[in-house]
Structures are given as structure tokens and as C-alpha cells.
Specification:
Number of domains: 1
Largest sheet: none
Order of helices and strands: HH
Structural class: mainly alpha
Number of helices: 2
Distance between the termini: 15 Å
Radius of gyration: 19 Å
Shape: elongated
Length: about 80
């Protein structure tokens, strides 16, 4: 008989999501201040910032779905 090993949940994705949220809030405040001072926004910086966040969120979603399917197959 083989024992099924349980994976320890370390909360890395939860930490990354918290860091992403804090970064998003800081970025929003800084962009608002820049707009108030200079009356313009750095469009390229904003586009790159949100592209990176979208990619990171997408990668985390793929990892979470893959992990869920892997765990589901282990218990069958």
C-alpha cells in the first residue's frame, strides 16, 4: 500500500496576491500625484505595469488550476 502524501500549503500565492494589491494601490496613488503635478500621464509606464500584472495573474491562475486538477487525480 502506498501512502498518499499531502502537500503543505505555504501560502505563497496568497502572499503574492497581497503584494500585487499593495503595489497596485501605491501605483494608483503615485500616478494620481503625477497627473496632478504635470497634468499628463505616462501611458507607456501604465501599459507596461498592467501588462506585467495581467501576465502574473494569468500565470498564477494556470498554476492554481493545474494544481487543482493534479490533486483531484491523486484522490481518485
Amino acid at each position: 500500500m502506498q501512502r498518499k502524501r499531502r502537500r503543505r500549503h505555504d501560502g505563497t500565492m496568497d502572499f503574492i496576491l497581497a503584494v500585487m494589491f499593495v503595489s497596485l494601490m501605491i501605483f494608483t496613488v503615485v500616478m494620481t500625484v503625477i497627473f496632478c503635478i504635470y497634468q499628463t500621464v505616462p501611458d507607456t509606464l501604465i501599459q507596461c505595469f498592467f501588462t506585467a500584472f495581467g501576465a502574473e495573474g494569468g500565470f498564477m491562475a494556470v498554476i492554481a488550476v493545474t494544481k487543482k486538477f493534479t490533486e483531484k487525480d491523486d484522490y481518485e
